[in-house]
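Example (one chain per record):
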Amino acid sequence: MAVEQFSRGTAQTNLRVRNAFHEMLYVHTQQFPGRVVPMVLLENGKPGYAINAFINHLLMQGEQESTLHQKISALCQLYEFCKRRYGDRSLSEEELRNLVFHFGNAKLNGTIQTDGTDPTNLYWTPIRPSTVKNLIRYIGAFDRFQEMFLGARRLNPVEVHFQTAFERYCEFKRRKDYDPFIHLFPSRSQKQLLPQYKVQEHRRDLSKRRQQKAFPVGHIVELIDATDEPRDKMLLLLMAFGSLRRSEPLHLLHEDVLGRFKDTGAAWVRLADPVHGEVSWLDDNDQEHSGPRQRYFASIYKNDHFPPVHPLRNLMPRCRYGRKGHGMQVGFKGMTFSGEGNNNFVHWLHEEAGCLFWKSYQEYMDRYFHGKPKHWPYHPFLFIRLDPEGFGLPLTIPGVDKVFERATRRIGVTGYSTHSLRHFYGYYTASVLRRPIEEAQVCMHHATVLSTQVYYKTDPLVVRSELLSVTAPELPQNDTFMHRLDLPKSWNFDAVIR
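Predicted structure:
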């Protein structure tokens, strides 16, 4: 791969000795334009052939940025563990066979001794079994690659086990959304690959009551009203009443706020793929163009007056940045714009929420954009940072988390994440509005109903009330908990104008 430019990045903690066995560089290449590519250098200053060949293999398969970094990080951690434990000497047959086993135990239990010391200088703290499973799985992917393409021995060998029909039944029964009668399929046995080292199953303590995923309905209005900053109010409205994930508002452009719906007065917010979504713009000669957003950034936002290392230099869609992108990297899980009429806009849970968004949007523009220098803030993203150090730069994921954390602390409701607002959308649609799951699928922009089922939760009291209305209609029913939210009149923008 022809390297054009690179930036260095290493990681270390306060205790452990700085890693001197490998370094990860993020480079720009001609083979994969528009994204940064990780490259691993070993302690001798030369690229690691096997791991960099594996990186190229993953990129050719279209590996996403986040999972690519996780797989490479797992291999780098294994390499460092091997170097610190065994040094530069060649491993014996037994040590090589148990390398992954000792690595998994070190990650699972940590390497710090009871007296606070660590002879390996790794200073690893214990991590969850599920995380260790992922690390072993990533090492297994590298194992298969190097065995197939490089002719190398497996780090974590596997053996073939022939399953009986009963074993197959037990295995599929443990899985989710699988047919437990798969054992009745004509084949009576099946091959199963069993790695030499497997992480023990972590059993959940069922005595502990799990907290509800959805943000409490009774506090959602309080959450919005207790937030005075118009930018923060817009974010919370999009996530709670528009079902957007925390990353999706950060892809919105100013051009995506198209105006208001004439019938309700709610804001009309367009949703689109951050790379291929259509957008219109004017060039320096006031000629109108339309095309994918990737071309829009390359045409308008080169920002040559900024230094080469500035985050606003040569803007790209935010999902194309790497982890070393100065906070510009924002993932995009994907949206499905199904249905008729180009279903590419926010479906407000209540139109009053859309009206409040429009009012907050105007306050936001008046406060932070009107009267600013021409071309400020040199990027088209709707949400900006308001802190003194990064004022005007695009808002980051940690910034969204801080907005939600401050809002929940303000009303005294803790223990929820930003994703609980999306769960609130699904719960409210099912239990209060009682809309079919197919409608919720369209509103939440899911590709399949299976994805919507995660959020579409019906309250048991709703089920009981529905059953009583059929089996015992003469009984009085108290369903006050199922009433729609009593939204404040101040949320209606037309009422505020009057």
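Caption: The first strand starts at residue 3 and ends at 9.
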